Fold this sequence. Notes:
The complex is a heterodimer. By secondary structure, chain A is mainly α. Chain A has one domain (about 5-265): MetI-like (MetI-like fold). Chain A has helices at about 5-20, 20-25, 55-90, 95-110, 115-125, 130-155, 160-165, 170-205, 220-225, 235-264. In chain B, the strands form 4 sheets. Chain B has a 6-stranded mixed beta sheet with strand order 7-8-9-3-10-11, with helices on both faces. Chain B is of the alpha/beta class. The longest helix of chain B is centred in the C-terminal third of the chain and has 18 residues, at about 505-520. Chain B is built from 23 helices and 21 strands. Chain B folds into 3 domains: about 1-75 and about 170-175 and about 200-250, P-loop containing nucleotide triphosphate hydrolases (Rossmann fold, 3-Layer(aba) Sandwich), CATH 3.40.50; about 255-330, no CATH class; about 335-565, Rossmann fold. The interface of A and B includes residues 161, 162, 163 and 181 of A.
Amino acid sequence: MRLPSVLALAVVAFLAIAALAPSALAPGDPLAIAPLDAFQPPSLAHIFGTDESGRDIYTRVVHGTGASLLIGIAATAIGLGLAVVFGLLAGFGPRWLDFGTTRLLEVLFAFPGLLFALLFIVIYGPGVVTSTIAVGLSTAPGYARIIRSRVIQVRTSPYLEAAVVLGRGRTTRIVRHVLPNVAGSLFVLATLGIGQSIVWASSLSYLGLGAVPPAAEWGAMLSAGRTYIASFWWMTFFPGLFIVLSAAATTLLGRAIQQRGRES
Amino acid sequence: MSLVTVDDLSVRFGATTVVSGVSFSVEEGECIGIVGESGSGKSVTARALLGLAGRRAVVSAAALDVDGTDIRTASPRQLRALRGREIGYVSQGALVALDPLRPVGREISDSLRLHTTMTPVERRARVLELLADVGVPEPSLRAGQRPDELSGGLRQRAVIASAIALRPRLLIADEPTTALDSTVQAGILDLLERLRDAGTAVILISHDLAVVSRLATRVLVMNAGTIVESGPTARVLGEPRHPYTRRLIAAVPTDRPRGTRLTPAVAAAPAAVSTAAAAPVAASVAAPVAAPVAAPVGNSGTAVAEDTESSVSTPGATATPEFPKTPGDAGGRAVVVAASRLSRRFGARLAVDDVSFTLERGRTLGVVGESGSGKTTVARLVLALDRPDAGDVHVLGEPWTTATERERRALRPRIGAIYQDALSSFDPRFTVGRILADAVSHGRSTRAGDEVAALLRRVGLDPAVAARRPLHLSGGQQQRVAIARAIAAKPDVIVCDEPVSSLDVSVQAQVLDLLDELQRDLGISYLFITHDLGVVRHVSDDVLVMQHGRVVESGPTERVFADPRDPYTRALFASAPRIGGWRAPTPPS
């Protein structure tokens, strides 16, 4: 394994621990305020500094990992789940259904993804759950298109024809041959997609449409620090750094898996 | 001095030696053939002559001279000059050797641009002249077209045109006709023959003895990196001394009667005995295989009348025991596949036009024709992978193409298929064991059991192969796995679509023998589709000759081959290269 992949793996491991057992890395309370310690620059006591209420930014960033990752993973799962359904319908259904779904996907493509997510939030109101669904919905068309082409590739392959000749029904062919062979690319798409979903979810929180303060969430923290960015850079820098790190690490890992899949 | 002198050439890749101790020479205007299976080192030898053995290759030789240049010490610049000017190279897979985005005329004029001082106008004229020389019709139109607009034969001609653009004194052609139809192949061989007669030395590399025997004055037979036999073509093919050469010649199916083994018999006995036990009538017939020496004696008294012609016709040939036909009279057998008046149209093109035939139990119907003649479409219609626009197919008396897929499913196990590209017909994630377990259990189990081991043994593979993935098997082994899968469900008929076309002659012989053996033991019928006339004559009882989607001639194989009535059939048969078809160079006029 090459160095970038090793580093990416280390970052992902750190994030995983932070998400599952945040207290192991940061024993403090992310919501405990200490007005006397407000706006402390990074030091040994507060390695990422403190915010306007004197809360430790390191603790908040670590405790916010869970929310950010969960949103990222859940949104990707929603996006991919929808995409698999669409992809299978388009790839396996009758021709008019393929035509219909493909055109629908093209219409959805015309909207910038974030705009589509905003539209959804406008209708259903802000919050963690709605923003997760919104991100999932807006990433689905992209995945659906990739999965559809992959499904068609497998469906028209000689080994699927061989399965027809052996007398296998459609359900057997989908379950035994199509889905497992599509799953490989699905896994790569998922790891690549989580990073993107984290960024999008953070963007929504930043706009005040996702997680709401005082909850420790990276995007929300960025938004809160924005007012003070000229004087107290650490308030925006460290949450921002974690967004970049998590997105970069999952993407790198996805690429590494893709590479290995191609070589074997 | 010879044009090419090779003395004690060795090529290593890391620790593996792929060519060792190879020595030969080529005189001006001479054609030599290098014959061997894939992996025998013939292509590497040719590439070493061009200084193209590869970056990781370690080439050593006592002498490696082409036209006075020592390849071992030549600088890259000298090599480049030599390659364009003195040696033309037609690489293997020439069908993909052309840049898909450039017109072929531009591709050909490249070497003129690099090696001569011709003006663009002169170059254009020379390109058209070259294309006309190699037999491309309408050169000015073709020169402006991209490779995908040309047929395989025209592409191959264009590659040769670019190789001979600078009138090289040596042309190296690596499998120049593999993957081409026989009439197209005949055209390319004619072209090479003309070049040879015009004074170009040719090194012709092929796994096909018939191709080599047509052109080469001398033949080198390579096996596992060494030359096992060399000499004048007529001598090597007429009285081969090395056992490997003999095996290679015996493997060629052309002109070998139906039911003759192409490979030495190996442990076919247990299978024959089990058949004998199951069907007492067949006992006397199966006996010769179990004990080849006793064949003429045992058979003469007890053979069923219809069997005599196939099993006693060559009683002296005890070295290659025969596959006697299963008893029963040829006229009144059960029909397993009946196609009537099939038509299939793709856009404006009629791919299959009014094709009818019947296939009887235990017999083989060969379908032969060139690419685009509609034979694969016929296979797909018979497998009900495609619907005919008119006509229908009955399988075992049941309506087949007119039924729904759900109705067909019950009958599916009775009709199997094997394909040219066995590997891509397997799910890439499956092991051999899982592929066969799935076939044996009709998709209900994926765990390989005793039945899978028995199947693997039946097709001559080690049961340990079950744990491996098809990707890591050789081409012949992959095809055996495909055959095992096809017979797993105990089918009555197997549709074989070019099953041996991508295999070496010797591997092809093994696969054909296996199919013959399975037919005798299990009574399977084959619909055997191929473009190879030698193969079709060897395997089939009846033959269907197709052209442009129509059946131009059909009948018992021996009748059709001995006395072809249709002009197309006659042209097709005339174009098939056969061993011993060597023509002496015409003296320059």
